[in-house]
Write a structure and sequence with these properties.
429 residues; Adenylosuccinate Synthetase, Chain A, domain 1; Adenylosuccinate Synthetase, subunit A, domain 2; Adenylosuccinate Synthetase, Chain A, domain 3; 10-stranded mixed beta sheet; 4-stranded mixed beta sheet; 13 helices; 33% helix; 20% strand; globular
Protein backbone atom coordinates (compact mmCIF):
# COMPACT_ATOMS: atom_id res chain seq x y z
CA UNK A 1 0.00 0.00 0.00
CA UNK A 2 1.08 3.58 -0.62
CA UNK A 3 -0.69 6.59 0.83
CA UNK A 4 1.02 9.73 -0.41
CA UNK A 5 0.93 13.36 0.72
CA UNK A 6 1.63 15.99 -1.95
CA UNK A 7 2.76 19.37 -0.61
CA UNK A 8 4.17 22.58 -2.00
CA UNK A 9 7.77 23.13 -0.95
CA UNK A 10 7.92 26.89 -1.57
CA UNK A 11 5.35 29.71 -1.31
CA UNK A 12 2.71 27.88 -3.34
CA UNK A 13 2.03 27.94 -7.10
CA UNK A 14 4.61 25.17 -7.62
CA UNK A 15 2.48 23.22 -10.09
CA UNK A 16 0.85 20.83 -7.61
CA UNK A 17 -2.28 20.56 -9.75
CA UNK A 18 -0.43 18.93 -12.62
CA UNK A 19 1.51 16.55 -10.36
CA UNK A 20 -1.61 15.49 -8.44
CA UNK A 21 -3.43 15.03 -11.72
CA UNK A 22 -0.64 12.80 -13.01
CA UNK A 23 -0.32 10.67 -9.86
CA UNK A 24 -4.11 10.29 -9.68
CA UNK A 25 -3.74 7.48 -12.22
CA UNK A 26 -2.20 5.35 -9.45
CA UNK A 27 -4.47 6.42 -6.56
CA UNK A 28 -8.02 5.40 -5.65
CA UNK A 29 -8.94 8.37 -3.43
CA UNK A 30 -7.78 11.97 -3.68
CA UNK A 31 -8.27 14.05 -0.53
CA UNK A 32 -7.94 17.82 -0.20
CA UNK A 33 -6.99 18.47 3.43
CA UNK A 34 -6.62 22.25 4.03
CA UNK A 35 -7.13 25.74 2.68
CA UNK A 36 -10.04 27.21 0.80
CA UNK A 37 -10.76 28.81 -2.54
CA UNK A 38 -7.80 31.11 -2.03
CA UNK A 39 -5.82 28.35 -3.73
CA UNK A 40 -6.02 27.41 -7.38
CA UNK A 41 -4.70 24.31 -9.12
CA UNK A 42 -4.23 24.56 -12.88
CA UNK A 43 -4.31 21.41 -15.01
CA UNK A 44 -3.93 21.22 -18.80
CA UNK A 45 -5.25 18.07 -20.50
CA UNK A 46 -5.23 17.81 -24.31
CA UNK A 47 -4.82 21.56 -24.55
CA UNK A 48 -7.84 22.23 -22.31
CA UNK A 49 -7.07 24.30 -19.21
CA UNK A 50 -8.94 23.66 -15.96
CA UNK A 51 -8.53 25.74 -12.78
CA UNK A 52 -9.87 24.14 -9.59
CA UNK A 53 -10.16 25.95 -6.27
CA UNK A 54 -11.87 23.42 -3.98
CA UNK A 55 -12.52 20.11 -5.75
CA UNK A 56 -9.42 17.86 -5.75
CA UNK A 57 -7.53 17.78 -9.04
CA UNK A 58 -8.24 14.06 -9.39
CA UNK A 59 -11.78 14.86 -10.52
CA UNK A 60 -10.52 15.01 -14.12
CA UNK A 61 -9.89 11.25 -14.03
CA UNK A 62 -12.86 8.87 -14.34
CA UNK A 63 -13.66 6.45 -11.50
CA UNK A 64 -11.63 8.32 -8.88
CA UNK A 65 -13.20 9.32 -5.57
CA UNK A 66 -12.53 12.92 -4.53
CA UNK A 67 -12.94 14.12 -0.97
CA UNK A 68 -12.98 17.60 0.56
CA UNK A 69 -11.66 16.97 4.06
CA UNK A 70 -12.59 18.52 7.39
CA UNK A 71 -9.51 20.78 7.30
CA UNK A 72 -10.84 22.73 4.30
CA UNK A 73 -12.97 25.87 4.67
CA UNK A 74 -15.58 25.82 1.89
CA UNK A 75 -17.45 28.63 0.20
CA UNK A 76 -20.61 26.75 -0.91
CA UNK A 77 -21.30 29.18 -3.74
CA UNK A 78 -17.83 28.67 -5.23
CA UNK A 79 -18.10 24.90 -4.84
CA UNK A 80 -21.44 24.81 -6.68
CA UNK A 81 -19.98 26.94 -9.48
CA UNK A 82 -17.09 24.46 -9.83
CA UNK A 83 -19.43 21.48 -9.89
CA UNK A 84 -21.65 23.09 -12.53
CA UNK A 85 -18.69 24.08 -14.72
CA UNK A 86 -17.29 20.54 -14.61
CA UNK A 87 -20.70 19.02 -15.35
CA UNK A 88 -21.06 21.18 -18.46
CA UNK A 89 -17.83 19.70 -19.76
CA UNK A 90 -18.74 16.13 -18.81
CA UNK A 91 -16.01 16.02 -16.19
CA UNK A 92 -18.13 15.35 -13.10
CA UNK A 93 -20.57 12.84 -11.71
CA UNK A 94 -22.23 13.03 -8.31
CA UNK A 95 -20.95 9.69 -7.02
CA UNK A 96 -17.32 10.79 -7.09
CA UNK A 97 -17.38 13.67 -4.57
CA UNK A 98 -17.70 13.67 -0.78
CA UNK A 99 -17.56 16.65 1.60
CA UNK A 100 -16.66 16.20 5.24
CA UNK A 101 -19.53 16.99 7.58
CA UNK A 102 -16.90 18.59 9.83
CA UNK A 103 -15.64 21.01 7.16
CA UNK A 104 -16.36 24.63 8.05
CA UNK A 105 -18.18 26.96 5.69
CA UNK A 106 -17.20 30.43 4.56
CA UNK A 107 -20.07 32.83 5.25
CA UNK A 108 -20.82 36.22 3.65
CA UNK A 109 -19.68 38.06 6.77
CA UNK A 110 -16.29 36.32 6.60
CA UNK A 111 -15.59 37.88 3.20
CA UNK A 112 -16.77 41.32 4.29
CA UNK A 113 -14.66 41.27 7.45
CA UNK A 114 -11.65 39.93 5.51
CA UNK A 115 -11.73 42.85 3.07
CA UNK A 116 -12.34 45.39 5.84
CA UNK A 117 -9.46 44.12 7.98
CA UNK A 118 -7.03 44.22 5.06
CA UNK A 119 -8.07 47.77 4.18
CA UNK A 120 -7.15 49.15 7.61
CA UNK A 121 -3.73 47.44 7.76
CA UNK A 122 -2.18 49.95 5.38
CA UNK A 123 1.51 49.24 4.83
CA UNK A 124 1.24 46.16 7.07
CA UNK A 125 -1.30 44.41 4.87
CA UNK A 126 -0.86 40.64 4.55
CA UNK A 127 -1.91 40.30 0.92
CA UNK A 128 -5.04 38.25 1.61
CA UNK A 129 -7.22 37.28 -1.35
CA UNK A 130 -10.29 38.71 0.41
CA UNK A 131 -12.20 35.44 0.11
CA UNK A 132 -12.92 35.07 3.82
CA UNK A 133 -10.45 32.26 4.47
CA UNK A 134 -8.76 33.78 7.53
CA UNK A 135 -11.96 34.86 9.30
CA UNK A 136 -13.48 31.42 8.69
CA UNK A 137 -10.48 29.75 10.34
CA UNK A 138 -10.67 32.30 13.15
CA UNK A 139 -14.26 31.24 13.86
CA UNK A 140 -13.24 27.59 13.70
CA UNK A 141 -10.62 28.18 16.39
CA UNK A 142 -13.02 30.36 18.40
CA UNK A 143 -15.58 27.51 18.23
CA UNK A 144 -18.21 29.71 16.62
CA UNK A 145 -17.94 28.43 13.04
CA UNK A 146 -20.68 26.81 10.98
CA UNK A 147 -20.00 23.36 9.53
CA UNK A 148 -21.67 21.27 6.86
CA UNK A 149 -23.13 19.14 9.65
CA UNK A 150 -24.97 22.30 10.75
CA UNK A 151 -26.05 23.18 7.21
CA UNK A 152 -27.98 19.96 6.70
CA UNK A 153 -29.89 20.44 9.99
CA UNK A 154 -32.11 23.48 9.42
CA UNK A 155 -32.91 24.15 13.09
CA UNK A 156 -29.29 23.92 14.19
CA UNK A 157 -28.13 26.10 11.30
CA UNK A 158 -30.65 28.87 11.98
CA UNK A 159 -29.86 28.97 15.70
CA UNK A 160 -26.10 29.07 15.17
CA UNK A 161 -26.46 31.67 12.42
CA UNK A 162 -28.47 33.98 14.72
CA UNK A 163 -25.77 33.72 17.38
CA UNK A 164 -22.97 34.35 14.84
CA UNK A 165 -24.66 37.43 13.38
CA UNK A 166 -25.09 39.02 16.80
CA UNK A 167 -21.30 39.16 16.99
CA UNK A 168 -20.44 39.80 13.33
CA UNK A 169 -22.97 42.59 12.82
CA UNK A 170 -21.65 44.32 15.93
CA UNK A 171 -18.08 44.08 14.61
CA UNK A 172 -19.07 45.37 11.18
CA UNK A 173 -21.04 48.34 12.52
CA UNK A 174 -18.86 49.33 15.50
CA UNK A 175 -15.38 48.67 14.16
CA UNK A 176 -15.75 49.15 10.40
CA UNK A 177 -18.89 51.35 10.24
CA UNK A 178 -20.44 49.01 7.69
CA UNK A 179 -23.88 47.47 7.43
CA UNK A 180 -24.47 43.96 8.74
CA UNK A 181 -26.53 41.01 7.52
CA UNK A 182 -30.09 39.77 8.08
CA UNK A 183 -30.55 36.25 9.43
CA UNK A 184 -33.37 35.54 6.99
CA UNK A 185 -31.33 36.48 3.90
CA UNK A 186 -28.37 34.24 4.72
CA UNK A 187 -30.62 31.45 5.96
CA UNK A 188 -32.60 31.33 2.69
CA UNK A 189 -29.44 31.48 0.62
CA UNK A 190 -27.70 28.67 2.52
CA UNK A 191 -30.76 26.45 2.53
CA UNK A 192 -30.52 26.53 -1.26
CA UNK A 193 -26.88 25.48 -0.91
CA UNK A 194 -27.95 22.67 1.44
CA UNK A 195 -30.36 21.39 -1.20
CA UNK A 196 -27.55 21.27 -3.77
CA UNK A 197 -24.71 20.00 -1.60
CA UNK A 198 -26.41 17.84 1.04
CA UNK A 199 -26.03 14.67 -1.04
CA UNK A 200 -22.22 14.93 -0.84
CA UNK A 201 -21.93 15.44 2.93
CA UNK A 202 -20.62 12.47 4.93
CA UNK A 203 -18.30 11.38 7.73
CA UNK A 204 -15.30 11.29 5.42
CA UNK A 205 -12.87 10.23 8.15
CA UNK A 206 -14.72 6.92 8.47
CA UNK A 207 -14.89 6.56 4.70
CA UNK A 208 -11.16 7.20 4.14
CA UNK A 209 -10.07 4.87 6.94
CA UNK A 210 -12.37 2.10 5.73
CA UNK A 211 -10.95 2.41 2.21
CA UNK A 212 -7.39 2.26 3.57
CA UNK A 213 -8.27 -0.96 5.43
CA UNK A 214 -9.45 -2.40 2.11
CA UNK A 215 -6.03 -1.69 0.61
CA UNK A 216 -7.02 1.36 -1.41
CA UNK A 217 -4.35 3.95 -2.23
CA UNK A 218 -4.94 7.50 -1.02
CA UNK A 219 -3.34 10.72 -2.22
CA UNK A 220 -3.62 13.71 0.11
CA UNK A 221 -3.53 16.99 -1.80
CA UNK A 222 -2.33 20.16 -0.13
CA UNK A 223 -2.95 23.73 -1.22
CA UNK A 224 -0.57 26.72 -1.04
CA UNK A 225 3.00 25.88 0.07
CA UNK A 226 5.20 25.15 3.07
CA UNK A 227 6.35 28.77 3.49
CA UNK A 228 2.69 29.81 3.81
CA UNK A 229 2.05 27.42 6.71
CA UNK A 230 0.64 29.26 9.73
CA UNK A 231 3.28 27.68 12.01
CA UNK A 232 6.25 27.06 9.72
CA UNK A 233 5.95 29.84 7.13
CA UNK A 234 6.97 33.48 6.88
CA UNK A 235 4.55 34.58 9.61
CA UNK A 236 2.45 36.77 9.53
CA UNK A 237 2.56 36.65 5.71
CA UNK A 238 1.06 33.18 5.65
CA UNK A 239 -2.27 31.46 5.14
CA UNK A 240 -4.50 30.44 8.06
CA UNK A 241 -3.99 26.67 8.01
CA UNK A 242 -1.27 24.04 8.25
CA UNK A 243 -0.07 23.47 4.71
CA UNK A 244 2.67 21.01 5.68
CA UNK A 245 2.36 17.23 5.41
CA UNK A 246 1.35 16.81 9.06
CA UNK A 247 -1.79 18.78 8.26
CA UNK A 248 -3.00 15.90 6.09
CA UNK A 249 -3.70 13.79 9.18
CA UNK A 250 -5.64 16.50 11.03
CA UNK A 251 -7.35 17.77 7.89
CA UNK A 252 -8.53 14.37 6.68
CA UNK A 253 -9.11 12.47 9.93
CA UNK A 254 -6.46 9.76 9.53
CA UNK A 255 -3.63 8.69 11.80
CA UNK A 256 0.03 9.41 10.92
CA UNK A 257 0.77 5.69 10.68
CA UNK A 258 -1.28 5.64 7.47
CA UNK A 259 1.08 8.01 5.64
CA UNK A 260 3.74 6.18 3.65
CA UNK A 261 5.49 8.92 1.64
CA UNK A 262 5.60 12.69 1.29
CA UNK A 263 6.38 14.28 -2.07
CA UNK A 264 7.33 17.96 -2.19
CA UNK A 265 6.72 20.08 -5.28
CA UNK A 266 9.21 22.81 -6.12
CA UNK A 267 9.72 25.01 -9.14
CA UNK A 268 13.17 25.11 -10.74
CA UNK A 269 13.17 28.75 -9.63
CA UNK A 270 11.15 30.52 -6.90
CA UNK A 271 7.95 32.57 -6.96
CA UNK A 272 5.67 34.18 -4.44
CA UNK A 273 2.32 36.00 -4.60
CA UNK A 274 1.43 38.77 -2.19
CA UNK A 275 3.32 40.46 0.60
CA UNK A 276 6.15 39.17 2.77
CA UNK A 277 9.89 38.48 2.66
CA UNK A 278 11.42 36.87 -0.42
CA UNK A 279 15.25 36.80 -0.17
CA UNK A 280 16.00 35.71 -3.77
CA UNK A 281 13.47 38.00 -5.46
CA UNK A 282 14.65 39.49 -8.74
CA UNK A 283 13.33 42.96 -9.50
CA UNK A 284 15.38 43.30 -12.69
CA UNK A 285 14.99 42.16 -16.30
CA UNK A 286 15.70 38.54 -15.35
CA UNK A 287 12.77 38.55 -12.92
CA UNK A 288 10.52 40.04 -15.61
CA UNK A 289 11.76 37.44 -18.10
CA UNK A 290 10.95 34.56 -15.72
CA UNK A 291 7.48 36.00 -15.06
CA UNK A 292 6.62 36.37 -18.73
CA UNK A 293 8.10 33.10 -19.94
CA UNK A 294 6.73 31.13 -17.00
CA UNK A 295 3.32 32.86 -17.19
CA UNK A 296 3.62 33.62 -13.50
CA UNK A 297 0.20 35.03 -12.69
CA UNK A 298 -1.98 33.70 -9.86
CA UNK A 299 -4.51 31.02 -10.84
CA UNK A 300 -6.96 32.39 -8.27
CA UNK A 301 -6.33 36.14 -8.31
CA UNK A 302 -4.51 36.80 -11.58
CA UNK A 303 -1.93 38.77 -9.61
CA UNK A 304 1.61 38.82 -11.09
CA UNK A 305 3.92 36.59 -9.08
CA UNK A 306 7.22 37.82 -7.73
CA UNK A 307 10.04 35.76 -9.26
CA UNK A 308 13.55 34.89 -8.13
CA UNK A 309 16.36 32.36 -8.24
CA UNK A 310 16.01 28.91 -6.70
CA UNK A 311 16.38 29.01 -2.90
CA UNK A 312 17.94 25.90 -1.39
CA UNK A 313 17.50 27.32 2.13
CA UNK A 314 13.74 27.28 1.59
CA UNK A 315 13.84 23.73 0.23
CA UNK A 316 15.93 22.44 3.16
CA UNK A 317 13.36 23.93 5.51
CA UNK A 318 10.53 22.28 3.56
CA UNK A 319 12.34 18.94 3.56
CA UNK A 320 12.67 19.03 7.33
CA UNK A 321 9.19 20.17 8.39
CA UNK A 322 7.43 17.91 5.89
CA UNK A 323 9.75 14.89 6.14
CA UNK A 324 10.06 14.81 2.35
CA UNK A 325 10.79 11.41 0.86
CA UNK A 326 10.94 12.69 -2.71
CA UNK A 327 10.75 15.85 -4.75
CA UNK A 328 9.13 16.89 -8.01
CA UNK A 329 10.81 19.75 -9.87
CA UNK A 330 8.49 21.71 -12.14
CA UNK A 331 9.05 24.29 -14.88
CA UNK A 332 12.63 23.26 -15.63
CA UNK A 333 11.87 24.18 -19.25
CA UNK A 334 11.41 27.85 -18.31
CA UNK A 335 15.13 28.19 -17.53
CA UNK A 336 16.14 27.25 -21.09
CA UNK A 337 17.88 30.20 -22.72
CA UNK A 338 19.69 31.55 -19.66
CA UNK A 339 23.47 31.53 -20.02
CA UNK A 340 23.97 31.56 -16.24
CA UNK A 341 21.68 30.30 -13.47
CA UNK A 342 22.04 30.99 -9.76
CA UNK A 343 21.14 28.90 -6.70
CA UNK A 344 20.88 30.47 -3.26
CA UNK A 345 22.76 28.30 -0.73
CA UNK A 346 22.54 30.54 2.34
CA UNK A 347 21.85 34.05 3.66
CA UNK A 348 24.07 36.73 5.17
CA UNK A 349 22.69 39.22 7.67
CA UNK A 350 24.77 41.59 9.82
CA UNK A 351 27.85 39.47 9.24
CA UNK A 352 26.23 36.17 10.23
CA UNK A 353 25.69 33.30 7.78
CA UNK A 354 22.34 31.46 7.87
CA UNK A 355 22.21 28.02 6.27
CA UNK A 356 18.78 27.22 7.71
CA UNK A 357 15.64 29.27 7.24
CA UNK A 358 15.32 31.93 10.01
CA UNK A 359 12.03 32.84 11.68
CA UNK A 360 13.05 36.41 12.50
CA UNK A 361 11.31 38.70 9.95
CA UNK A 362 14.03 41.33 10.34
CA UNK A 363 16.63 38.80 9.25
CA UNK A 364 14.52 37.62 6.32
CA UNK A 365 13.73 41.14 5.12
CA UNK A 366 17.39 42.16 5.25
CA UNK A 367 18.98 38.88 4.19
CA UNK A 368 21.58 38.93 1.44
CA UNK A 369 21.33 35.71 -0.57
CA UNK A 370 24.58 33.80 -1.09
CA UNK A 371 24.66 32.37 -4.60
CA UNK A 372 26.36 29.62 -6.53
CA UNK A 373 26.44 30.31 -10.26
CA UNK A 374 26.04 27.51 -12.77
CA UNK A 375 26.13 27.33 -16.56
CA UNK A 376 22.73 27.32 -18.23
CA UNK A 377 21.48 25.68 -21.42
CA UNK A 378 19.69 26.77 -24.58
CA UNK A 379 17.95 23.53 -25.63
CA UNK A 380 14.14 23.30 -25.70
CA UNK A 381 13.11 20.73 -23.07
CA UNK A 382 9.40 20.51 -23.87
CA UNK A 383 9.65 17.20 -25.75
CA UNK A 384 12.23 15.47 -23.51
CA UNK A 385 10.86 12.14 -22.23
CA UNK A 386 13.65 10.75 -20.03
CA UNK A 387 16.21 12.14 -17.62
CA UNK A 388 19.22 11.01 -19.67
CA UNK A 389 18.05 13.08 -22.65
CA UNK A 390 18.21 16.35 -20.72
CA UNK A 391 21.12 18.70 -21.56
CA UNK A 392 24.23 18.10 -19.46
CA UNK A 393 23.91 21.43 -17.62
CA UNK A 394 20.23 20.81 -16.82
CA UNK A 395 21.12 17.43 -15.27
CA UNK A 396 23.95 19.08 -13.36
CA UNK A 397 21.53 21.73 -12.05
CA UNK A 398 19.07 19.07 -10.82
CA UNK A 399 21.90 17.13 -9.18
CA UNK A 400 23.03 20.23 -7.29
CA UNK A 401 19.48 20.84 -6.03
CA UNK A 402 19.42 17.26 -4.70
CA UNK A 403 22.78 17.74 -2.96
CA UNK A 404 21.72 21.00 -1.31
CA UNK A 405 18.32 19.72 -0.16
CA UNK A 406 19.18 16.13 0.72
CA UNK A 407 16.08 14.91 -1.14
CA UNK A 408 16.06 12.81 -4.29
CA UNK A 409 14.20 13.99 -7.38
CA UNK A 410 11.39 11.64 -8.36
CA UNK A 411 9.85 13.68 -11.18
CA UNK A 412 10.73 16.56 -13.51
CA UNK A 413 8.12 18.61 -15.37
CA UNK A 414 9.10 20.25 -18.67
CA UNK A 415 5.74 21.70 -19.73
CA UNK A 416 2.10 22.15 -18.74
CA UNK A 417 0.68 19.05 -20.45
CA UNK A 418 0.41 15.67 -18.73
CA UNK A 419 2.82 14.06 -21.19
CA UNK A 420 5.48 16.73 -20.65
CA UNK A 421 6.70 14.93 -17.57
CA UNK A 422 9.77 12.84 -16.78
CA UNK A 423 8.86 10.27 -14.10
CA UNK A 424 12.02 8.97 -12.47
CA UNK A 425 10.52 7.05 -9.56
CA UNK A 426 6.81 6.39 -8.98
CA UNK A 427 6.01 6.93 -5.26
CA UNK A 428 3.02 4.58 -5.50
CA UNK A 429 5.28 1.66 -6.39
Amino acid sequence: MSNIVIVGAQWGDEGKGKIVDMFTEYADLIVRFQGGNNAGHTIVVDGEKTVLHLIPSGILHPNKKCIIGNGVVVDPEVLIEEIDALKKRGRFDDERLLISEDAHMIMPYHKKIDAAMESIRGTRKIGTTGRGIGPAYEDKTARTGLRFADLIDEKVFREKLKFALMEKNHILSSLFHQSGFEVHDIYEQYMQYAERLGRYVANTSIYINDEIKKGKKVMFEGAQGTLLDVDHGTYPYVTSSNTVAGGACCGAGVGPTHIDKVIGISKAYTTRVGEGPFPTELTDMTGDWLREKGQEFGATTGRPRRCGWFDAVVLRHAARVNGLSGMAITKLDILSGLSKIKICTGYRFEGKIYNEFPSNPRVLNGAEPLYEEMDGWVEDLSSVKDIDSLPYNAKKYLKRIEELSGVETTLVSVGMERDQTILIKNPFR
